[in-house]
Design a protein that fits this description.
It is a single chain. The chain is mainly α. The chain has a domain at about 165-228. Helices cover about 70% and strands about 5% of the residues. It is built from eleven helices and two strands, in the order H-H-H-H-H-H-H-H-H-H-H-E-E. The chain has helices at about 1-20, 25-35, 45-50, 60-75, 80-95, 100-115, 120-130, 135-150, 150-160, 170-180, 185-200, and strands at about 210, 215-220. Strands 1-2 form a two-stranded antiparallel ribbon.
Length: about 230
Amino acid sequence: MKLYIYILGLLLVCSCSEESNNRVASQRDYDKYLVTHAPKTTSKYFELWNSKIRLDSMQLTSFGIVGGEYGRYFKETGDISYLKKAERSLKRAVEIASVGRAGYRRSLARNYISQHRFKEALVLANEAREIGTDPKESQYLLFDVHLELGNYRTAEKYLDSTKNMKDFGYLIRLAKWNDYKGDLETTINFMEKAKGLAVESKNRDSDCLECDQSCGLLRPRWEDRGFL
């Protein structure tokens, strides 16, 4: 019995030793990739425009910029409170805007999409389309909303109306459409094409592109042209 226990113990020691020798990576090799830094949730740019807002403020530009910055903080932190703050700023912009009316509605609609308030987003998307400014952006938005609502035929209609194989916004939505249909290979193909267009545009318009680390794409930073 003692011999059996001794042999069992020896086998366990050998097994652990072999596992250690066969380890495929050392912890210090990947620790550097696990280091995280707290995202910034303020900036001099934000503080400047936020300071211009008062209780009865009519500072349209301030509401738009502050709303956009709050939206960016939400994307970086996942903190829903920033999304709600962005909503308040954008709603005020929609209320007082005499110019850029369609754009502010699209921005607020995208905020609602992020909150899964799709029916409210649809109302704003239709209003933006009726105003008529930048109709392609409104059609993109309507595709996004109808796809989320499950109105697939309507979504396809809006997608077809914007067809342009040289346009980043169209290609990224075409990829999402094929993802909905379950065609992974085609989805990846269009994502790669969209990435290629974005890379080509980066040198010409570097201020309106940012790298999306989660999927390896470059996407417009402008909230109104965002794709969720």
